Amino acid sequence: MAIGVHAPETDLMLPRPEPGEQWDPHTIHTYYFGFSIPEAGIGAFLYLRLQPAFPLSQGGVCLFRGTDNVEATDIAFLDYEITMPWPTVDGRTITTDNGLRIEFLEPGHRARITYTSKEGTTSVDVTAEAVTPLLARGHVMPGEENHHDVSRAAGGSEQFMHMTGGLVLDGERHVVDCYAPRDRSWNQVRVEKRGAVPVPPVGWSPMYFGPDLVFNQISFEAPDTEPPWLGLYDVGDRPSHHYAWVQVGDETRTVTWVRRSVLERHPRTHLPLRQVVEARDERGDEYRFEGEAVAAASLPAWPNVSFHDSVYRWRDQQGRTTHATYQEIWFDEFQKEMRRRHAPATAAAL
User: Fold this and answer.
1) What gap in Å lies between CA 252 and CA 172, rounded to an integer?
2) Most exposed residue of 15, 87, 104, 340, measured as fewest CB within 10 angstroms of its CB?
3) Cα distance between residue 141 and residue 201, in whole Å
4) pLDDT tens column, 249-298
5) How many other CB atoms are there within 10 angstroms of residue 91's CB atom?
6) Backbone angles phi, psi at 145, to 5 degrees
């Protein structure tokens, strides 16, 4: 299936119910930007989630360093509010109550993201310049699409950006110059009810090696790799990925097969620390990427699941390396299974 491209104005879509309308309370619009500073082991998660049925929003700035961030409050800097009023929207600029500001200088192509902590010791000022098309992406979790409201068109987009600017973290200055994905969703119904979307842990692994190779996929670990979710979820015979693409020069190709294999997990957070992603595109070209985490954290974006962000160092078949976010999300059944498996080792460590 061909990968579509969204119009630039979708960046500004923030519909709300008309007077008298009743929307599903789980309807969401989201914005995600991120960046990494690999040499310092730093990752940034800049997120806004809007709930138009109320209307409310949540989000803010999460900055993490190193791989041993077990709790959200372990990270280097946390300013994330679960309940905020609807953000201020002034033309092409969206500003949250806690000061995260997203200005779309050129929708679909360029944005500036700024933030300053109330203490004034931590700040973000980065510009995002598009290096890939504004590709159309659907739902995040397999099965989530079954809950969407068919009366309102749901959508999503993904795009790789050249992130430049600066970060001040607790008074320490860092230069930002990296390639990182952004994404957003609108009118999606992301249910939080227990058992509504029974799916194994899902991992997102975008990678930018250069204009000749940009890769992205969302999948669960392939069943033939003996993943720890076996026996907890019935995935039938569906593919392990549900969205994947590769950009080769100016050409965007659909990825038709993905096999993701985890080699090592963090002993306490259970996030993959090392893994291999293999893939094949619609033309039959094959890819293999080996990755390891240089920073990782548990984050509060979705309280009904375990949500983790990380900075991964990826290596392609030619030996080239790049860094980008790797994000994974799972439900409580998997968390309990991993705790059971690691209980003896954890007790010994304590």
Assistant:
1) 39
2) 340
3) 9
4) 999 999 999 999 999 999 999 999 999 999 999 999 999 999 999 999 99
5) 8
6) -65, -20
The confidence band for 119, taking pLDDT boundaries of 50, 70 and 90, is very high
End-to-end, the C-alpha distance of the chain in Å comes to: 50
SS3 72: helix
Largest pairwise CA distance in the chain = 59
Mean pLDDT across 58-62? 98
Instruction: Tell me what pLDDT residue 195 has.
Output: 76
With a CB cutoff of 8 Å and minimum separation 6, the contacts of 108 are 6, 7, 8, 9, 10, 11, 130, 134
Assign domain 27-191+198-349 one CATH number from 1.10.10.60, 2.40.370.10, 2.60.40.10, 3.40.605.10. 2.40.370.10
Q: Residues 159, 133: contact at Cβ < 8 Å? A: yes
Tokens encoding 295: 């920073």
d(CA 335, CA 247): 34
Give the chain's radius of gyration (CA, Å): 19
Confidence of residue 350 (pLDDT cuts 50, 70, 90): very low
Q: Buried (b) or exposed (e) across 219-231, using 16+ Cβ within 10 A?
A: bbbbeeeebbbee
- Give the domain ranges of the chain: 27-191+198-349
Residues in the chain: 350
